[in-house]
Amino acid sequence: MVQKLDMLVETASQTGGPYVHIGCIPTFAGLEGIYPEDLGKRAIEDGAQGEVITITGAVYDGMGWALRDAMCESWQADAKGRFPGQEGADPKVNGFARFAADGESGEFTLRTVKPGRVAMRGGGFQAPHIALWIVARGINTGLQTRIYFEDEDNSGDPLLARIEQRQRAETLIAKKTGDGLYRFDIRLQGEGETVFLDM
User: Fold this and answer.
1) What's the number of domains the chain is made of?
2) What backbone torsions phi and psi does residue 93 show, to the nearest 5 degrees?
């Protein structure tokens, strides 16, 4: 039997959710036994060098609602500014983590070490930062951004220097809320929209 193509209805664009957790972090989605441990479960192992920090936050839509199915991946250097695989890198810092928003509150938590300044080719340094990739229902293409820290010297960072509207650069700065504790919220649109990177 031949089916006419003009009778098929176009489907909606694919987005990162609500099923992204099932494929990327099945244990978090309540599916035990698929993997011994979800990939990226921990950014650091016990004994990692440097200041251990905890970053909490949420991903908010244009209406100010926290997305309860958001998932983030982070990539970072160790406390000395070295990435895994580089000579002298801390073997207890994985560099990569994958974490999701809590299904009730929409809050996410990242426990890691504060990264060091990263040397650039040709000289100079980037301020300590963590790169983030964000996906969720309604986001057709994963969003890239960075987390910087308000208690670090961010002057001279080449990425922050390229943001023409200085107040928008503030959307990339995690606020210190306590000893080793930071808050970093991501706003997809509207007032205080986070700076996203075209990579």
Assistant:
1) 1
2) -110, 115
Helices (H), 34-165: 158-161
DSSP-assigned letter for residue 158: H
Range of the domain at 108: 14-187
Residue 30: partners with Cβ closer than 8 Å, 6 or more residues away: none
CATH number reported for the structural domain that contains residue 134 in this entry: 2.60.130.10
Distance from C-alpha of 23 to C-alpha of 178, rounded to nearest angstrom: 34
Where the chain has pLDDT below 50, the residues are none
- Contacts of residue 180, defined as CB under 8 A and 6 or more positions apart, other chains included, come to 51, 52, 53, 54
pTM above 0.90, yes or no: no
- 168 three-state secondary structure: helix
Q: Is residue 37 a part of any domain in this protein? A: yes
